Amino acid sequence: MKKNLFVVFLFCSGIFVLAAQSSNITEICADVTVDGITYSKTSFALVGEVTIIGDGNRGAFISDRTVTLTPYIIGKYLVTQEFYKSVAKKIPNAYTSPSKYKSDSLVAGEVQELRPVEMVDFFEIARFCNTLSELHGLEPVFTITDDTVTFDITKNGWRIPTEAEWECAARGGNPDDTNNWNRVYGHKYAWVKSNSDDVTHEVGLKKPNSLDMYDMIGNVYEWCIDLSGDIETGTVTNPTGASSGTMRVQRSCSKNANKLYDALARDEGEQDKYWSDVGFRLCRTIPASVLLSEADTDF
Known about the structure:
CATH superfamily: paralog of FGE (formylglycine-generating enzyme)
CATH class: Alpha Beta
CATH topology: paralog of FGE (formylglycine-generating enzyme)
Strand order of the largest sheet: 6-9-18-12
Largest sheet: 4 strands, antiparallel
Shape: globular
CATH architecture: Alpha-Beta Complex
Radius of gyration: 18 Å
Structural class: alpha+beta
């Protein structure tokens, strides 16, 4: 589940640069290390800059809407209970093991620590992300003041995806690849009521999508960073939802869904509430300079 690893980080003007001159996309997308321990099932998929011309009346990419997303990485896996605990234990007064689904509901052959973390609200996720950013020398994305959370996705720290980023990745990341730009996934990809035994499952056991991302449908719903609201038409870059409110977007569906939801289904939840069927996956904005340094390599 985890292994010891000695990692050297380089810092420049306070920003974690992942050894920019010699780094490559493989390193950026690799499993995450905390305190010299690398945690399995924490790797990432890279989504390059993409423009999506909307179609239909469901999801983030509706008719009369054109969305450009700049490069980002997004977790191939939901955040696991093990990885969550490794960071949460560094947060004052944080509950490090919040999940409802403990070992007494574990399916034989699966690993308890690799089940998705759940029962975490948006504030706890924001603190988790900021703490992980600080551990890695990155710029924290979230600002938390009493019962308010704001964010700045231009910063290079850890966060969760926007609704548009989530949907783009769930559908395969490239609308020009018509063979893999999907919105419907069958039971081979998803834990839902008909095959889950109404419990969460170790992440990454079902078939991945074309970006090698797992559990994009089923197992648990996923928090997105956006405040919930109507999807607006027009041309936008990196949309982040409504400008006010306390409801945050949730995507996917859960292990007790009566049907297979597609990648266009939208839901929402109060940001200070938590549920046993809602988790999250990590995301990070990738500066163009990092990708340009990659283009200069022989990889």
